[in-house]
């Protein structure tokens, strides 16, 4: 019997979806678990798998088209089965396959054919998170004139939460770039135009009405004339500056790489992110070393008494979209939520012994951070007032525990969320944190995985920081700051002995968490950490 597949609701705020790509065609055999299509939601592009087996008998929404949630997406059944009754008005409404993309959230503008030259596709600034209103193009990985294949990465786009790769769902030649590197624009502004090589798209650009791009910041660099399309050595202007993308400069600065030694593969020898990441420092020849030593010796011999002759040097770095949002949200939190701080010192001797024992098991590894997360989750179940959020009319008490774990990334800070943390074991917590932190740093984490936290943990112990305070990650009511484990003299049973301690500080919103409540939470947390066996019960 044929089964009707409808447009799924892939996020809590999704009202319609766009079929980015069909991975199956009518007549194909479908197995349970096969990926049918890639669907653009209001938050991300996600793979949609089939929960049914059979033959794909009908496609209701073509690639590039949008339809409301629950519209007819496809029909799967037995080969040759009559589905005319379903198409005539079965259990699900049929999506209009010729309807244009909804105007509110277009990913690719598909105006009637008469309005666009044949084969031309307008790509707009995507909405890559539920709170994103503008985006910044960090890096273009393609340039005008390049041939783009379906699935190629067009650009890296900074949202309010992360820098994410944006791939093309269409093939063609890149005819126009609407937002230059470093430029910002509202969601749905024209980002690029793809189509057949040589197509005149000036009319399309002039008639495009959704959003307006913000010009990229002016730069003082003057491009040098280069006759070849790609250089094998870095290209500098008259002032000696090296041409490199903003992202390439950031990565080079973090890795301590001298850009003058990096060969640029971009247009006119411009250094790209890939050039920096693939750079392998060369080895100087004996003659080069000898020449350098000779020059240094001569310079020392000729040195004159030191006279201060420095010059003031400043560098202006454009704030990324993520940095702007971090500044805005933390300022709002600090100046609207009355923060107070509670600090407690933990005896970590039993935790160290327990961790050594656990990690002695085959294929098992947990960190102290995993233990902190587990202890916090269990303490929150006993003190739900700390697991709350403030609203003007009421205080929301969360009886589920979703812990956000602050992760430092290239452009700032993101907070992946462990859903239902209290139900996870130590090893599950460790594996989940490692996976999400890795994907956050490589820009592969999805926006939905950074939403819904009820409590946050920030750990700087691995950097040797013994004690610090954090700003609450709203709408949470509290955040726990975790310091390093320190070996020092402590008093036990009236004797001074060597012990291991760790300091944690709980920042609370006084509107929802009173001092006594916060203190009781820390006492429970301390009991779990100092007796880890109680977390395994």
Automatic annotation (TrEMBL):
Which cofactors, if any, are listed as required? (R)-lipoate
- Whether Ribosomal protein counts among this entry's keywords is no
Enzymatic class: transferase
EC number(s) recorded for this UniProt protein: 2.3.1.-
Keywords recorded for this protein, A-Z: Acyltransferase, Lipoyl, Pyruvate, Transferase
Q: Which PROSITE patterns match?
A: BIOTINYL_LIPOYL (PS50968), LIPOYL (PS00189), PSBD (PS51826)
**Record family assignment:** Belongs to the 2-oxoacid dehydrogenase family.
Protein name, UniProt field: Dihydrolipoamide acetyltransferase component of pyruvate dehydrogenase complex
């Amino acid at each position: 019997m044929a089964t009707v597949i409808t447009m799924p609701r892939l996020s809590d705020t999704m009202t319609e979806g766009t079929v980015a790509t069909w991975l199956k065609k009518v007549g194909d055999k479908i197995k349970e678990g096969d990926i049918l299509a890639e669907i653009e939601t209001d938050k991300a592009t996600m793979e949609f798998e089939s929960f049914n087996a059979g033959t794909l008998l009908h496609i209701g929404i073509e690639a590039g088209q949008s339809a409301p949630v629950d519209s007819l997406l496809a029909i799967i059944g037995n080969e040759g089965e009559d589905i005319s009754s379903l198409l005539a008005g079965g259990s699900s409404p049929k999506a209009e396959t010729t309807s244009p993309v909804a105007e509110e959230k277009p990913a690719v503008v598909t105006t009637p054919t008469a309005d666009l030259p044949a084969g031309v596709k307008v790509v707009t600034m995507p909405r890559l998170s539920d709170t994103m209103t503008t985006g910044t193009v960090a890096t273009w990985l393609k340039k005008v004139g390049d041939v783009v294949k379906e699935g190629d990465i067009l650009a890296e786009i900074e949202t309010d939460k992360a820098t994410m790769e944006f791939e093309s769902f269409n093939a063609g030649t890149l005819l126009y770039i609407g937002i230059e590197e470093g430029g910002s624009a509202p969601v749905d502004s024209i980002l690029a135009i793809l189509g057949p090589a040589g197509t005149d798209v000036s009319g399309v650009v002039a008639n495009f009405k959704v959003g307006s791009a913000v010009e990229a910041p002016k730069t003082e660099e003057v491009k040098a004339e280069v006759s070849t399309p790609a250089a094998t050595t870095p290209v500098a202007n008259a002032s000696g500056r090296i041409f490199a993308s903003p992202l390439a400069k950031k990565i080079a600065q973090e890795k301590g790489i001298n850009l003058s030694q990096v060969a640029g593969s971009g247009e006119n020898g411009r250094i790209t992110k890939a050039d920096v990441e693939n750079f392998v420092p060369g080895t100087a020849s004996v003659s080069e070393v000898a020449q350098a030593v000779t020059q240094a010796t001569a310079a020392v011999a000729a040195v004159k008494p030191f006279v201060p002759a420095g010059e003031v040097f400043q560098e202006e770095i454009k704030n990324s979209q993520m940095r702007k949002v971090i500044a805005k949200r933390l300022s709002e939190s600090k100046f609207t939520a009355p923060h107070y701080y509670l600090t407690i010192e933990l005896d970590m001797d039993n935790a160290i012994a327990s961790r050594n024992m656990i990690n002695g098991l085959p294929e098992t590894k947990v960190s102290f951070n995993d233990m902190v997360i587990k202890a916090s989750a269990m303490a929150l179940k006993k003190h739900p007032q700390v697991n709350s959020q403030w609203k003007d009319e009421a205080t929301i008490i969360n009886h589920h525990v979703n812990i956000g774990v602050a992760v430092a990334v290239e452009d700032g800070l993101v907070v992946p969320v462990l859903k239902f943390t209290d139900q996870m074991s130590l090893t599950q917590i460790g594996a989940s944190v490692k996976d999400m932190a890795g994907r956050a740093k490589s820009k592969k984490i999805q926006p939905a995985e950074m939403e819904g936290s009820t409590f946050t943990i920030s750990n700087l112990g691995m950097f040797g920081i013994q004690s610090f305070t954090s700003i609450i990650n709203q709408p949470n009511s509290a955040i726990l700051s975790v310091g390093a484990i320190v070996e020092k003299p402590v008093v036990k049973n009236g004797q001074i002995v060597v012990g291991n301690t760790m300091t944690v500080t709980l920042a609370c919103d006084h509107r929802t968490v009173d001092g006594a409540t916060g203190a009781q939470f820390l006492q429970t947390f301390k009991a779990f950490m100092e007796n880890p066996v109680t977390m395994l019960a």
